[in-house]
Specification:
Blueprint: E1 12-18, E2 20-21, E3 33-34, H1 41-55, E4 63-71, H2 79-92, E5 94-105, H3 109-112, H4 115-121, E6 125-131, H5 135-140, H6 147-159, E7 165-171, H7 178-190, E8 195-200, H8 208-211, H9 219-235, E9 239-242, E10 245-247, H10 254-260, E11 264-268, E12 273-278, E13 283-289, H11 293-300, E14 306-311, H12 314-325, E15 332-333, H13 334-341, H14 345-350, E16 360-362, E17 366-369, H15 371-375, H16 377-386
Parallel strand pairs: 1-4, 1-11, 2-3, 4-5, 5-6, 6-7, 7-8
Antiparallel strand pairs: 8-10, 9-10, 12-13, 13-14, 15-17, 16-17
Length: 387
């Protein structure tokens, strides 16, 4: 690693994984487990705090810039539990005054009843897993809410005082038509959230859909869906700043941007992953936690939440940086690359030798993909991986 290039310690975020959900969706490959009646919030919070104590030994930053509660379904936890977690974090490390604190929530009535209390607990950004406003599509996805609940959840979130709301939507769904995909996006835009995440349904290993694959639209048809939806988003003032993320001006998700810009983040909770940069040893390390909730709770309370770690070598660092940073539509500056990786920009440019020039945009100060390269980002990344 070129040590002279590693100039700054990155910003620090916190990810909190809540691994339980009401019912696992057939497309979901996240670490999620169906919740029983005996879900013990107190035991899990104690494990999270013990996990955080151990994690902080690996970081020199003295302030958290963003916090994200993901899952699973974090909104299964009570507002009191979320408040306790945030208070526990604040006792152990400073939280920036303008810290973005996101909670993922399902549109179900049970979760909606808690939105006002979540706002009082300190959550200032709500990410609602809508997926579709079409009841047939929701049924095919195995979702437990319907379109009425989805619309009511958004109304309830606004009434609770949230002005920073993300809506998650998917396209390329089983049996979905182009008008249906476009209709979802049009309705989402009309609801005027600050942010819209727009994902293509992909079939992942270790999911029900992988074993029982539904019939999906043809690739060319999915491409048409994506282009139609992206045009609609742009027409409504939502700018694409990342592969699957669109926002109003100034309303990008700062937590995710820290990921894409190769910042550091603490990951606590069952199956959570983290990344730390050590300036003294010129090293970047990833760590991950026990996946099963019971095993996590047992190990974390004994100071052993981590189930594995890996110190990245230079090829891994180069590729992982690009895997993240090239997701950003604007690309990145060479200064950021050198500061976050400790690798010279010359090494990066050399790695581009076998990539078609029309897929990249390289200036004196920065690096990114062309419009075509952005559309075929996986192909670009495969070329880097093969270098």
């Amino acid at each position: 690693m070129n040590h002279k290039a590693l100039l700054q310690t990155p910003p620090l975020s916190l990810y909190v994984h809540i691994p339980w959900c009401v019912r696992k969706c057939p497309y979901c490959d996240f670490n999620s487990h169906e919740a029983g009646k005996d879900l013990d919030e107190s035991a899990y919070i104690a494990a999270l705090m013990a996990d955080l104590d151990t994690e902080l030994e690996h970081y020199t930053q003295n302030e958290i810039q963003s916090i994200f509660f993901g899952g699973g379904t974090p909104s299964l936890f009570s507002a009191e539990a979320i408040a306790d977690i945030l208070a526990g974090v604040a006792r152990k490390i400073a939280v920036a005054p303008e810290c973005e604190i996101t909670l993922e929530a399902n549109p179900g009535t049970f979760e909606q009843e808690k939105f006002t209390d979540y706002r009082s607990a300190g959550i200032n950004r709500l990410s609602i897993g809508i997926q579709s406003f079409n009841d047939d599509m929701l049924s095919r996805l195995g979702r437990i809410h319907d379109s009425k609940e989805a619309l009511k959840a958004i109304e309830t979130a606004y009434a609770a005082g949230f002005d920073n709301i993300n809506l998650d939507l998917m396209f390329g769904l089983p049996g979905q038509s182009l008008p249906e995909a476009a209709g979802d996006i049009s309705l989402a835009c009309d609801l005027e959230p600050a942010h819209i995440s727009h994902y293509q349904l992909t079939i992942e290993p270790n999911t029900y859909f992988y074993k029982h694959t539904p019939v999906l639209p043809k690739t060319d048809y999915i491409w048409d869906m994506q282009q139609r939806c992206h045009d609609t988003l742009q027409q409504h003032g939502y700018a694409q700043y990342e592969v699957s993320a669109f926002s109003r001006a100034g309303r990008q998700c700062s937590h995710n941007i820290n990921y894409w810009r190769f910042g550091d983040y603490i990951g606590i909770g069952a199956g959570a992953h983290g990344k730390s940069t050590n300036i003294d040893s010129h090293s970047i390390t990833r760590r991950w936690k026990h996946r099963q909730p019971a095993a996590y709770i047992n190990n974390a309370t004994q100071g052993n939440a981590c189930s594995g770690s890996n110190q990245l070598d230079q090829p891994d660092i180069l590729f992982e940086f690009l895997l993240n940073a090239l997701r950003l539509r604007q690309g990145f500056g060479f200064d950021l690359f050198e500061q976050r990786t400790g690798i010279s920009k010359e090494r990066l440019i050399t790695a581009c030798d076998n990539i078609a020039p029309e897929l990249l945009v390289i200036s004196e100060t920065g690096f990114g993909t062309s419009r075509r390269g952005f559309d075929f980002l996986n192909d670009v990344l495969e070329k880097f991986l093969a270098h």
